[in-house]
Task: inverse folding
């Protein structure tokens, strides 16, 4: 899958491992179930670790482990299953997770801005062309009305800071 | 009224460009209809039976004369010369061309309007009391908080793909004209023991297939925590609301399955983390928005206006319009005038372009250029001097907008029904038209008194039939249109879901059935008793007996 980070296509250094597959060397992403059953041996590998959450698996389930993880992948089984937007907010705002939050599944250019505002910083897309649309997709709406997990300042804060008319 | 500043202008303009690009991608074939659908729905563009339909947001139902003129222009230039005001205080255009919709949105942006979030599984247009700011029974103007909610909910990145659509209503008055108990979230402004103003928060109400009356999740929410509390409710719902079944996806189903106590626990736990975050509303921000809704410059008048009283005495037609369509104003010498969009035999809520222009002019002359859209699909001029009412009424009569039936039987709510909507089982508008023709004698309607008939063409209940004093629900019986009748519903502070009276009636028989119900009521009412009071006293039985006696 093509991977977009910081607006450009990058080589994916991570291997997503299916539950029935054997682990391989290097950074791996495993399912929540595998993480829970093989936690100790995974940690003993001493390589970067990621966990993949399905859309009905809240990051609250791995809240205690987040400081051992470098990546959390949040699945969108369909583009309109929006649970992971809240999960990303929780990862960033509630648990202070600093690693990669990756959107996988139904990920399209028209969602980049929303996802980025919720704290996603990596996007697996079906089509490389989506990367070309990146810049436009995240900049075509420049005003935000509500605080998010990104660095954009909402209108409320900007209004309060402007000089009195 | 709220006026856009540079941030609001920028957002709406950028949104138009974004949508223009999306439409171009659809027209070029880069996007399939399936891929385009969620994008167009985020801008209120539906594909209906015959054509696209564009739903334009009228935030909390408030319009200026300038905005109304623009709607008239759009109706003329891009549609067939009329628009349809909806139960969500919005306006729909039924015949726009896809390739012209970005132009329509650009026209709207010029007058500080848009179609953002008028459809899709997101937070929809926040609705309110159509008499806000003018009502005598108001604690505070709810539009201040509607506007704050409008901004917070606009393009909210986390809540754009909720399990289902999400509707919020706010009222500032004791008498609930905003139906807050049948919304996903209802906010009732109230005072706590210390006399501070805040909100009673009601959650999980709704109509649709499973009508539910909302429950109070918080008795008193201080104003500064409004947005964090809403965000907490939405975050819990976004994560836990059902996504496996379209018909079980609204928050009412979640609240019901969790139980209000457990749901409240989840919300309050979430809230405890975000209560003191950047979502907290600073007092100066509330004050800033309040200045937009400062009362217009009322003249200092006597409440008794002699020329008005004289005209009312002399002109019976005027008197009858005043009786139904004029409501008390908080300011002496002023009144609130309701413009009925329910003339006999016409589709409820429709207004032609020339009527819209006329209303814009009248609002300019008589109501500080302000107009409201009601969730009962009428329009309101909120600030009219009593001394001007007669002239206003005469002008309204000239453009066929002086029907004296606000709150009466022919002031019906009807969804678009099978004539326009591909979800409908049965026609709604023609039934409404036939009922209004049957009861076209206005003296008879005045005698019947306050009676709300609401008609939905299918179980999705866009016509709010569950909360009609008489509700009609279109059902399909072996390919034929039938109508199930419910009685005793109510959407005000005594919210009740109507009860099914018995087997459904055919399209041909349903108007007779309504008439029998009304006659039964007239026979058994005690003096001055309204239909809903009589129903509460006697229940279904007498109506059942007359309706099904011959069967």
Result:
């Amino acid at each position: 899958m093509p991977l977009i980070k910081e607006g450009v296509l990058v080589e994916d250094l991570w291997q997503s491992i299916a539950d029935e597959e054997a682990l391989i060397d290097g950074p791996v992403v495993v399912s929540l179930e595998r993480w829970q059953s093989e936690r100790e041996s995974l940690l003993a590998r001493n390589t970067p670790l990621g966990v993949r959450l399905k859309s009905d698996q809240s990051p609250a389930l791995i809240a205690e482990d987040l400081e051992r993880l470098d990546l959390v992948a949040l699945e969108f089984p369909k583009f309109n299953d929006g649970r992971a937007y809240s999960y990303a907010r929780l990862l960033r705002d509630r648990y202070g997770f600093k690693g990669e939050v990756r959107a996988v599944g139904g990920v399209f250019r028209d969602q980049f801005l929303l996802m980025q505002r919720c704290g996603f910083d990596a996007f697996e897309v079906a089509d490389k062309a989506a990367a070309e649309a990146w810049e436009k997709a995240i900049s075509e709406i420049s005003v935000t009305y509500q605080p998010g997990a990104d660095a954009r300042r909402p209108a409320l804060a900007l209004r309060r800071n402007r000089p009195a008319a | 009224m709220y006026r856009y500043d540079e941030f609001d202008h920028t957002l709406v303009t950028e949104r138009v460009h974004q949508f223009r690009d999306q439409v171009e991608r659809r027209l070029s074939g880069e996007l399939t209809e399936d891929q385009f659908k969620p994008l167009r729905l985020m801008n209120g563009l539906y594909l209906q039976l015959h054509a696209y339909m564009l739903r334009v947001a009228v935030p909390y139902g408030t319009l200026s004369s300038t905005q109304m003129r623009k709607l008239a222009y759009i109706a003329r230039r891009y549609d067939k010369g009329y628009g349809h005001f909806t139960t969500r205080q919005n306006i729909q255009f039924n015949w726009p061309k896809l390739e012209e919709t970005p132009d329509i949105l650009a026209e709207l942006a010029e007058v500080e309007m848009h179609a953002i979030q008028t459809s899709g599984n997101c937070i929809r247009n926040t609705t309110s009391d159509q008499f806000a700011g003018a009502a005598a029974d108001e604690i505070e103007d709810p539009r201040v908080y509607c506007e704050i909610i409008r901004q917070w909910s606009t393009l909210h990145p986390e809540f754009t793909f909720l399990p289902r659509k999400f509707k919020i209503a706010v009222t500032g008055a004791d008498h609930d004209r905003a139906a807050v108990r049948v919304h996903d979230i209802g906010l009732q402004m109230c005072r706590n023991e210390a006399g501070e103003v805040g909100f009673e928060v009601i959650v999980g109400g709704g109509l649709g297939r499973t009508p539910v009356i909302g429950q109070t999740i918080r008795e008193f929410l201080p104003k500064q925590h409004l947005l964090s509390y809403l965000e907490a409710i939405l975050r819990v719902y976004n994560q836990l609301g059902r996504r496996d079944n379209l018909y079980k996806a609204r928050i009412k189903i979640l609240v019901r399955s969790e139980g209000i106590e457990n749901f409240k626990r989840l919300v309050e736990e979430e809230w405890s983390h975000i209560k003191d975050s950047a979502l907290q509303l600073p007092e100066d921000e509330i004050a800033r928005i309040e200045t937009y809704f400062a009362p217009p410059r009322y003249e200092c008048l006597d409440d008794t206006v002699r020329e008005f009283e004289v005209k009312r005495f002399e002109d019976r037609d005027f008197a009858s319009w005043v009786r139904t369509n004029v409501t008390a104003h908080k300011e002496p010498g002023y009144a609130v005038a309701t413009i009925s969009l329910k003339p006999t035999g016409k589709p409820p809520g429709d207004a032609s372009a020339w009527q819209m222009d006329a209303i814009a002019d009248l609002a300019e002359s008589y109501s500080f250029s302000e107009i409201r859209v009601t969730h009962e699909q009428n329009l309101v001029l909120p600030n009219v001097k009593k001394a001007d009412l007669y002239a206003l009424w005469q002008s309204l009569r000239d453009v066929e907008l002086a029907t004296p039936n606000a709150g009466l039987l022919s002031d019906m709510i009807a969804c678009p029904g099978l004539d326009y909507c591909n979800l409908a089982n049965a026609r709604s508008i023609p039934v409404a038209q036939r009922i209004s023709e049957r009861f076209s004698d206005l003296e008879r309607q005045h005698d019947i008194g306050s009676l709300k008939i609401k008609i939905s063409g299918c179980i999705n209940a866009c016509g709010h039939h569950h909360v009609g004093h008489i509700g009609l629900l279109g059902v399909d019986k072996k390919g034929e249109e039938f109508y199930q009748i419910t009685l005793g519903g109510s959407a005000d502070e005594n919210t009740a879901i109507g009860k099914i009276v018995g087997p459904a009636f055919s399209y041909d028989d349903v108007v007779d059935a309504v008439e029998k119900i009304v006659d039964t009521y007239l026979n058994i009412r005690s003096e001055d008793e309204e239909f809903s009071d009589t129903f509460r006293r006697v229940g279904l039985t007498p109506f059942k007996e007359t309706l099904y006696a011959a069967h």
Notes: Chain B has a mean pLDDT of 95. Residues 6-110 of chain B form a domain with the Sulfite Reductase Hemoprotein; domain 2 fold (CATH 3.90.480.20). The longest strand of chain B covers residues 215-222. Residues 64 and 338 of chain B are 16 Å apart (CA to CA).
